[in-house]
Design a protein that fits this description.
There is one protein chain. By secondary structure, this protein is of the alpha+beta class. It has five helices and six strands; from the N terminus they run H-E-E-H-H-H-E-E-H-E-E. Helix 1 packs across helix 5.
Length: 158
Amino acid sequence: MSSLTLAAAEEIIDAAHKRAQAIGKAVSVAVVDAGGFPVAIRRPDGARPLTPDIARAKAYTAAVMQRPGKMLKKWQESQPVFFSQLSQLPGAALPIMATEGSVTIKKDGEIIGGLGIAGGTAEEDQQIADEVLASLGYELEFAAWGVAGGPAGAGKDA
């Protein structure tokens, strides 16, 4: 079983901040382990004060739901009451956020954590997360829930 080390989390955060700076954004970045527990969270100069909390909730969602937040959108839209109750479960540490910038960290077919980016537009947060994880050799393919067949791309809604 693989685990997400602090060194790996810091490498992801450094790459995300470099990518964000290249597009002129100050984003907060959170990396959590497979159980949703924080490994590292960083808010750079210029990032809005609430962005670390948003990034952590996005990372938590991607880890505990075992799918990128973007893939959860249709589920949330089709069953809003059920979905809203997920955050109220006794074991839920943070809100479940079906949104961009919430990406599951997967290596060698195993889910090892979650990445949350907050501070840009939804599209910018997602682009930064996808580009960084791909550049560092993490997998971005996840099977759609309840659908027979092969995996759905992380860039697609499932």
